[in-house]
Amino acid sequence: MAAVFPIKPVWDQPGSSRIPFWAYTDEALYKRELERLFYQGHWCYVGLEAEIPNPGDYKRSVIGERSVILTRAADGSVNVVENVCAHRGMQFCRERHGNKKEFVCPYHQWSYTLKGDLQGVPFRRGVRQDGKVNGGMPKDFETADHGLNKLKVAVRGGVVFASFDHEVESLEDFLGPDMCAYFDRLFNGRKLTVLGYNRQRIPGNWKLMQENIKDPYHPGLLHTWFVTYGLWRADNKSQLKMDAHHRHAAMISTRSGQAATSEVTAGVTSFKAGMDVNDKRLLDIVPEEWWKGPTAVMMTVFPSVIFQQQVNSVSTRHIQPNGAGSFDFVWTHFGFEDDTPEMTQRRLIQANLFGPAGFVSADDGEVIELSQCGFEQKPCHRTLAELGGTGVENTDHMVTETLIRGMYEYWRKVMDV
Ligand SMILES: [Fe+2]
To answer: Which of 54, 56, 149, 148 is nearest to 102 (CA)?
Structure first.
């Protein structure tokens, strides 16, 4: 009888179209992903400038499994520091966000500026008692040597990325010209406003979330909402584009006035011809000038974030892994400072399609959880991502899994598997 568990995970398939189930379940491999993808060589999303508009504002965030703090210092600069005290290692910041003049670790009251420089150490020069000085830090102790770990920071269009790796390439090179253009389409310099958050914990491997937004095959099949109201269907005009490394991608789709029923809805069980929404505001879509055509652009920036435009709903979706089989998924719904009150209301109402209980996204959370269940039960097996062939290329249709193959081609290289 063949062994149920491989002794050592070996990817014995050619190319990247058949992904072993252990790629989603192996804890040692997951630790390597944190090191090579989240902590080295990549820019990771931490938040929006709009979340820290004033000097002293801060927001706790995370890169991989490491807690970090996004701050606005007194001089207006944007900083990201690791949430680990230089003294005894305590994760000192517990609030999600706030405003402070300085950070003070509660354990021994070491204090830091908002840029992460150590400024105060209690009893540094000892304590005077009976005419002599007791204790204190060594004479050669320099506060300059014991600040918080400062990350490299890049801000573009109001979006803040950071990296533990100070040798990382520029954010623009990291994204590449094609992805940069789609990024700038959404974040084109207008000031952002934060409309609200959703948070959920999904019991599945973090890569499944990247794959979900690199998978244009499923939306018109899984999501009743998309296929019934034509927001995302296989016969929409569409393009799939990747960066040169095939790690990032954009799925670009334009809703057209197709017949409600056609060959792409025939036999699709999620298509509900007679379904109607009571609240018509959910489908009150108003085209915006900055769209320049597409009604939806879904961007995956590897490994940490998804940028969403689905008609008038725009959001960032932050992937925060915690173990091979689980990740937190944090949605930040935003708008633009020059939006009319009506447009803000429209964005908020359309945001009901997304988030943990969204009319669309609730489906994704569930299929990710159940995919992970399948992987756990049959570790020697593999997925099949061969729609559209086994190669990796940009396409002008969405009947392909090319973006998933692209991501695993890159993953195999960096992960050395
Ligand atoms: Fe989906």
So the answer is: 56
Q: Specify burial of residue 170 (Cβ count, 10 A radius: 0-12, 13-18, 19+).
A: exposed
Q: pLDDT class for 1, splitting at 50, 70, 90?
A: very low
Domains observed in the chain: 44-153 (2.102.10.10), 176-415 (3.90.380.10)
Distance (Å) from CA 363 to ligand 1 centroid: 7
Q: pTM of this prediction?
A: 0.95
* Cα of 373 from ligand 1 centre, angstroms: 18
CA of 376 to the centre of ligand 1 (A): 22
Using the mean position of ligand 1's atoms as its centre, give its distance from the Cα of residue 226 in Å.
9
Question: Does residue 126 or residue 235 have the better pLDDT?
Answer: 126
Q: Are 322 and 166 in contact (CB under 8 A)?
A: no
User: What percent of the chain has pLDDT above 70?
Assistant: 97
Q: What is the Å distance from ligand 1's center to 343 Cα?
A: 25
- As a 3-state breakdown, the chain gives helix, strand, coil percent values, each rounded to 5, of 25, 25, 50
Spacing, Cα 201 to ligand 1 middle (Å): 16
Q: Is the pLDDT of residue 271 over 50?
A: yes
